[in-house]
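Box 3.1 A note on notation
Throughout this textbook, protein chains are presented in two layers. The first layer is the amino acid sequence; the second is a token string describing backbone geometry. Keep the layers aligned when reading.
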Amino acid sequence: MSNPYEIAPKCILTRLTESIEHLGCYCAGFELSQWRCAGFADNLIEWIIDYALKSDELRNTNHTNTFVRLKQAASRVYITKKYERRGEIAEIAAHAVCRTYFNTIPVAARVNYLSASNDPIKAFDLVHVRYVGDDRFEMWLGEAKFFKDRNDAIKDAVASIKGHITAGFLKNEKLLLGPQVSSDIPHSARIKDLLSAEASLDDLIANAVFPVLIAANSDATASHVSACDDYSAEVDAEMKDLWEKLKASGLTEKIKIKLIYVPLADKDALSKAFNERLKGLQIE
């Protein structure tokens, strides 16, 4: 049985900073002296099939049904007029960055956690697996925040992570995830064992990486017209400030965290552009 996650869309987000184990900055770039808002929104739409569909649906996607699959994916992202407060843009960005730069694959589609009202229940924003060699794998359990103010975003992320690494939450998460693990991904049986009720939470924590994506307005991005050296240095400073706040929370000493910073020039403009494209795919 072929792996439906062998091929993924291209990601517009380019890594600006040097590759460091625990943090990195990924920017949509600039076009005609403007931050690439429209291009980023387009690319997010390209990723919704990979983000929202289940593995068997991905396997059966081809040139004859791509539009149908796009509409299916769009209906699962969200259906609401109050799009300004939705966080799926950050979730899709986290999905794209982890898939592109860290070669992860989804354990289960995030939208499987949606209730009938299309509201996300309390769960990790990203549940991927990353294979390390032939026999070892890491569970990637992610948080994604989409805010205007990056300091508010990191504060909210810290609160979410603290709530998500409690025994009660992790046990419920295992009960939710275990039955949804795709049988067609490598080592699916071992992943199911790790997520079983009988497995110790210590084993899950030891095998886990917690990516934290912060997509928020950046002073540097708003004030530059190209990804020059000065821009990269300013964004790097913003990212490291976020990392210091993560360290101050004490979480970096308890779990393995990877900070992913996506600087935005205008959060509201991106939200509006993405929503317009998403609505164009949804049935009224």
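Strands lie at 14-15, 23-27, 30-31, 34-35, 104-106, 126-132, 136-147, 208-217, 257-264. The CA atoms of residues 165 and 205 lie 9 Å apart.
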